[in-house]
Amino acid sequence: QVQLVESGGGLVQAGGSLRLSCAASGRAFTNYAKGWFRQAPGKEREFVATISWNGGSTYYAGSVKGRFTISRDNAKNTVYLQMNSLKPEDTAVYYCAAASIMAVVTDGAKYEYWGQGTQVTVSS
User: Fold this and answer.
1) Cβ(69)–Cβ(81) under 8 Å?
2) Residues of the chain below pLDDT 50
3) What is the pLDDT of residues 36-48, one digit of tens each?
4) Exposure pattern of 14-42 as b/e (b: 16+ CB <10 Å)?
5) Phi/psi of residue 75, each to 5°?
6) Could you tell me if 50 and 97 are in contact, meaning their C-beta atoms sit under 8 angstroms apart?
7) Alpha-carbon distance 90 to 62, whole Å?
8) Are 17 and 9 contacting, i.e. CB atoms less than 8 angstroms apart?
């Protein structure tokens, strides 16, 4: 059974940092792009960041560029999202996903596997 499990969410004050992790099991995702998405209450899911199969390429949404960093450790089958300088508008449920495409992928429809999400709440 393929699973993606996020962890690391929580409550943090504005300006603080969190590091999200997404551990995969059930298969290796070595040749898969990975991505992070988020969904705030009453809003559509939005793209946050993506990383290519070997970590050589990354791409970020404009709203998080310069504050968030995506990385991966294929030996651990895990992808990370380091979030710094957090703002209240970053509050959302964060989801990791995997796509059977080796390059970066921003379109959520191209991702085949999704985690259950982890809540991030940033207080002002």
Assistant:
1) yes
2) none
3) 999 999 999 999 9
4) eeeebebbbbbeeeebeebbbbbbbeeee
5) -65, -30
6) no
7) 13
8) no
- Pick the closest to residue 106 from 52, 25, 43 (CA basis): 52
C-alpha span between 97 and 108 (Å, rounded)? 8
CA 24 to each of CA 8, 15, 34, 79: distance values in angstroms, whole numbers, following the listed order: 15, 29, 11, 9
Instruction: Match 């995969």 to its residue by tokens.
Output: 24
Q: Show the tokens assigned to 25.
A: 């099991």
Residue 104 structure tokens: 């970066």
Q: How far apart are CA 3 and CA 106, in angstroms?
A: 21
Residue 28: the pLDDT is 84
Q: Distance between CA atoms of 114 and 95, rounded to whole angstroms?
A: 7
Residue 77, pLDDT score: 95
Residues 6+ apart with CB under 8 A from 26: 1, 2, 3
- CB of 71 within 8 A of CB of 55? yes
